[in-house]
Amino acid sequence: MKVDEHLRLLEWKLSRGHKRPWLMGQAKLLTEQQVFDATSGAFAALAGYCPADGVAVVKRAIALMNAMKSVGPATASAALAAVCPHTPFMSDTALATALSGRKVDYTPKAYLELVAALQGKAQELSSPGGSRV
User: Fold this and answer.
1) Fewer beta carbons under 10 A from the terminal one: N or C of the chain?
2) pLDDT of 112-125, one tens digit each?
């Protein structure tokens, strides 16, 4: 990913949920090399990932993305969701729905709980006789 792509992603993400205008200022300070290193490492970590692999791979990818200033788990999840269909975007709606409406902080731990909850629900829905909600 390049800096301009990262900035567009951040603009998109900031148009949803909590407003954090200072994030864009931090993101504009990132170099091409910083963005490339973090995103290419995270995307490579997810190569061939499937839910049966567990969340350790996703945890590593999130950590690599979080190395960039301006990138927390929600922004990282937006980038990862674009390259891997098994990594959901950490939206307010997804958190409230998948984690039963409990108050959740935007942390890597909460994101991994979201991933596990959504993957569990997907498995339940796709199994023979699974609920069809």
Assistant:
1) C
2) 999 999 888 888 88
